[in-house]
Amino acid sequence: MMTQEAQAVLARVLDGANACLTCSFQAEDVVVLHLARQVRPDLPVLFLDTGYHFAATYEYRDRMAAEWSLQLINLTARQSVAEQEAEFGLLYQTRPADCCGARKVEPLMRGLEPYEVWLTGLRREQSPTRANLQVEETHKLPTGKQLAKISPLAAWTNRDVWQYAKEHRIPLLSLYDQGYTSIGCEPCTQLPLDPNNARSGRWGGAKLECGIHTFTQPGS
After folding, report:
1. Which helix (H) or strand (E) covers residue 47, if one does?
2. Which 8-state DSSP code applies to residue 181?
3. Using H for helix, E for strand and C for coil, what is the string for 94-160?
């Protein structure tokens, strides 16, 4: 039933729309990608290449991009990792919010500018900060442009995601086998500190969000 609801949402919002999907290649993003490709096989897939991802993440991204013939778009920061570290040192240690802002938020907001519909793999169960997530919301870019932000798996549980992946024989990122439950940049990702909060292993527990979803307005 939940799969049918997600399929119906995607069929409706992708009908003639200039849309994209942001994909970190975590399980829920890959499930949304699998569902969306049934409607739009050539859907642009935006990946935030921060320069700090696990080697396993890059390997998995490249594998899936090749196997699924993805229209992959790698979004990068204005400064390379070397340039940023030369100017600021290890910013992810001293000012993690600024590091996320430069390497994730700004590149994504810039990358989303051409689109009307933004698909995500966000789910309410992922974190207390996402408990009120709606399937359809409005996201305002820094330029003032507004996008329809669609999270078709908002109500899905972790079990739902993994069951779908199993049923459809979708290989998942190998880091899950090591106990990671939410996977971002390698220096800022560890095993979960709270078994009831999948994102508690991010940023040493100091925060739960990078800032990407700050501009989203509930409802639409």
Report:
1. strand 44-48
2. S
3. HCHHHHHHHHHHHHHHHHHCCCCEEECCCCHHHCHHHCCCCCEEEEECCCCCEEEEECCCCCCCHHH
What's the farthest any 2 CA atoms get from each other in the chain? 52
Q: What share of the chain has pLDDT > 70, as a percent?
A: 87
Ramachandran angles phi, psi of 97, nearest 5°: -65, -40
- Strands 136-140 and 216-217, bridge-based pairing: antiparallel
How many residues in total does the chain contain? 220
Catalytic hit among 23, 99, 100, 210 = 210
Q: Bigger pLDDT: 115 or 100?
A: 115
**Mean per-residue pLDDT over the chain, rounded:** 89
Q: How many CB atoms lie within 10 A of CB 86?
A: 10
Whether pLDDT at 206 is above 90: no
Q: What are the tens digits of pLDDT across the range 141-158?
A: 999 999 999 999 999 999
SS3 43: coil
Q: Active-site residue 210, yes or no? A: yes
Structure tokens that stand for 21 in this block: 């999907």
Query: Using CA atoms in the order 118, 121, 127, 131, what is the torsion angle rounded to 10 degrees?
Result: 60
- pTM of the predicted model, to two decimals? 0.88
